[in-house]
Amino acid sequence: MASSRLTKTEEKALLDILGCQHLSLLYKASLHTYNVNAFHNKCDNQGPTVVVGYNASGYIFGGFTEQSYASAEKYLFDNNAFLFRLKGKGQEPSVLKFPVKNAVEAVLDNSAYGPTFGANTLVFLSESKNSVTTDADTNSYTLNAEDLHGNDQVLLECEVYRVEGLSSILEKPWREMTWTAEKREALMKEIRTFKPCLSAVPQCRVLLVGPVGAGKSSFFNSVNSTFRGYVSSQAAAGSDSTSLTKQYRTYHLKSGSGRTPLPVIFCDTMGLEAQPNAGLDIEDVRSILEGHIPDRYSFNPSCVMNPNMPNYIKCPSPKDRIHCVAFIIDGSKVEILPEKLEEKLKDIRRKANSFGVPQLVILTKVDQICPIVEEDTSYVYKSMAVQKQMRLMEAKLGIPLSHIVPVKNYSSELELRNDVDILILMAVRQMLRLAEDYLDDCDDEPPVNRSIKDCYAEP
Fold first, then answer.
1. CB burial class (10 A; 0-12, 13-18, 19+) of residue 244?
2. In this predicted structure, what is the pLDDT of residue 244?
3. Counting C-beta atoms within 10 Å of the first and last residue's C-beta, which end of the chain has fewer, N or C?
4. For helices 339-354 and 384-397, what crossing angle results, to 10°?
5. How are beta strands 82-87 and 96-99 bridged, if at all?
6. Would you state the torsion angle of the CA atoms of residues 172, 174, 176, 181, taken in this order, to the nearest 10 degrees?
7. CB contact set of 59 (below 8 Å; sequence gap of 6+)
């Protein structure tokens, strides 16, 4: 059985860097040969791994990735990847970490290459030789080659370990949040008393768009439940292979037993589908953004809404337009979002940008991302798994992390929960703030003398 070259002191220092409990040696070049095929045979499909290189100058250095090698012939996204120096020329560990700068190309997983970090930033077993190559000029990692390995690129040994017992919960939350009942009430009051800055717009319109099954209608139901004071299900929600929502619906939210109107209207749409001529048509999105589509319009993927159709709103007012777009995305399926579906989301983002409409992402089903969050939603901003999904979403759509908010919809619960409500309320508040930014850029339009008949197509 192969034994590690690391001393006990070095191993402890490496465990501290990684924040894990145990290392299992998978590959040792002096035993298994300096060969990329041998590396992949031993290290593919092993989960998180750390590569450790040793040179004659006394340096011990390497790289870590949470992603699993699979010879997938592509770059792996990993916001938590990093390069490190465990030891320099001295006898004692001298630790340095070099964080990833471009998480989209953190690791190259290719059967023709050994462990490769970034766009050739650090390559082990280059051409199946006992060496590393380094390109510190890439934008993949913050790196100084001299500090990493003393510019001695000949390997005396190369080892790869499976990293076990990684902590899935951060010591401190990466986004501060208060989880008290007082915070919940303060958020509800802030939303109830919100008044749009544009006098012609009494309520902000938020367009909900997302793939089939992501939880658009469930999100509306969850917001509605929070303000009604009990779990309700006004919008049709559930699981199906095609969209349950067939109509364009505008939902006016109301608060409490007095049914006081809230300053936000949710506009629900047919779900997006990867197949062409299925689900919501991107051209219908343009008409929705401009305010041309009436409530209860039935979507027809083979025929988009146009000015000649019945009930087409010819001259929408500012209050009819969309003031914010919310992409509803299943947080547990970010990695497997089909490319064609991802492109549709980007198309909608481009259309919204062309009208100056701000956007945010509502990341649903966070309880399915992390089992600890499933038990206690208040751990959501301590969960490394949730953070990873949010950063991956940021990279896919180009939406800033500050405009990505995680939520857990009410699905199996019979009673409201404080932690679930707070996440939902934070999402609604962020929508209103973005809508306010949009309205703040708009001028009050002068009144136009026109009849209702002038503004609608003949039925």
1. middle
2. 57
3. N
4. 70
5. antiparallel
6. -70
7. 53, 85, 87, 88, 89, 148, 149, 150, 152
| Integer Cα distance of 264 and 435 in angstroms | 10
- Residue 241 confidence class, pLDDT cut points 50, 70, 90: very low
The number of residues making up the chain comes to 459
Which amino acid is located at 399 in the chain? Answer: I
Structure tokens that stand for 354 in this block: 């062309």
pLDDT band of 298, cuts 50, 70, 90: confident
